[in-house]
Hints:
Number of helices: 4
CATH class: Mainly Beta
Number of domains: 1
CATH superfamily: PK beta-barrel domain-like
Amino acid sequence: MSGRVTAVSSNGEYSFTKPNRDSITLPAGVGVEGDVHAGVTVKHRSRVAQDPTRPNLRQVHLIHEELFAEVGEDGFQVAPGELGENITTRGIDLLGLPTGTLLRIGDSAVLEVTGLRNPCIQIDAFQEGLLKRVVGRDEAGNVVHKAGIMSVVREGGVVRPGDAIAAELPAGPYRALERV
C-alpha cells in the first residue's frame, strides 16, 4: 500500500487551521518541529486538562486529500491544512490501516499509526455542518470517523509535498483503528 504527500502544514500557535509549508521536520518521539502539538506528552488542550503527563499519541495528524472531494460534493470547500492536519496524503487508505502500521515517508521519516482523529465541534466553527460529514454512521449504524489518523514519530526526517509514502503493516492479528 502506497501513496504520496500532497501538502505539509504546521502552526506554532493554537489555531484550528495550519498554514502549508515547503517542508516539515519530524524529530523522533516529538512530532512536527515548531508545531504547537509537538511533544512527548499530550499537547491538545482538553487532554492536558485531564492529565498532562499522558504520552502524546497525537504527534502527527494525517488526512487523505480524497476527503476534500467527498465533502465538496455537499458544497464544503476544504484545502490542505484547513482541518489542522500536518500531512495531507493521496492514494493511500489511511482509515483502513490497522493500529501499529508504520508509514515510511520520504527519505527517512517513519511514523507509527496510533489511531483515529477524534474530531470536535471546532470543525463546525470552521464550516457549519462539516462535522456531520466527517463523523457519520455506516449502513450498520456504526460510528465512522473520517477526519484522518494520528501517529507518533519513530524515526525522524524531513517531509515534503511529493514524497512517497509506503505502509508497512504490523504482524497480525490486526487491531482496527480507534479514537485517540
